[in-house]
Amino acid sequence: MGIGASVPQQQQLQSTAMSKVSKLVSGLITQNPVMVFSKSYCPYCTRAKSELTKRKIAFKAVELDNTKDGGDIQAYLQQLTTQRTVPNIFANGHHIGGCDDTLDKLASGKFQQLLAGKKGPFVVVEKPAPAKEESGTESERTDTSATTPVPQPEGKTSAAAPVAQPEGKGKAVAESKTATPPVEQSPAKGTANVFPPAA
């Protein structure tokens, strides 16, 4: 019974470890234009890295034999690319392959094209957060009366209650202040209904 109980725990630990490795590998491929998964003693890895250096192409190399999770990384790369061997090389999120593939693509210029072109399928794009650009309800977002001057019809402004224009930036607000009609009005306009004309 004790053995049976530990199997799910082991599977959970393995799943957690692979999740950690997958995040690590995805991050390395995404953050580095040229990513080389290598082993320090591998002559094919040395040759591929030398060719990249000779062509002045910067790269990040992870030596799997000198890395704590090297075996797990190599196993995950096999799942990801179906390639078990090293070097395992990526350019701009595109899987290049091993040493021979890299040398061929460098010689043909395909490597450089991939490096300068669109991101490849192995680049992990962060999912955007839910849209929270604006706060408040839709009516609050569309209500601009607090910041936009409201034009007043002629004859409705009285001396007792002048309309306050909001302070703001821009030429439009300044023009609206200068374009406001004077407070004093002729009897023929706004006051005709209040005081009848003399007979």
From TrEMBL:
**Residues covered by region (Disordered):** 128-199
Biased composition, class Basic and acidic residues, residue ranges: 129-143
Task: Give the Pfam families listed for this entry.
Answer: Glutaredoxin
Positions of the Glutaredoxin domain: 34-96
Q: Would the keyword Membrane turn up in this protein's UniProt record?
A: no
Membrane-crossing residues? none
Q: Name one GO molecular function term.
A: glutathione disulfide oxidoreductase activity
One of the record's GO cellular component terms: cytoplasm
Q: Which PROSITE patterns match?
A: GLUTAREDOXIN_1, GLUTAREDOXIN_2
Q: Which domain of life is it from?
A: Eukaryota
Q: Does the keyword Disulfide bond apply?
A: yes
User: What is the name of the protein in this document?
Assistant: Glutaredoxin
Look up and give the organism this protein is from.
Coemansia spiralis
Ordered alphabetically, the record's keywords are: Disulfide bond, Electron transport, Redox-active center, Transport
BP GO terms, sorted = cellular response to oxidative stress
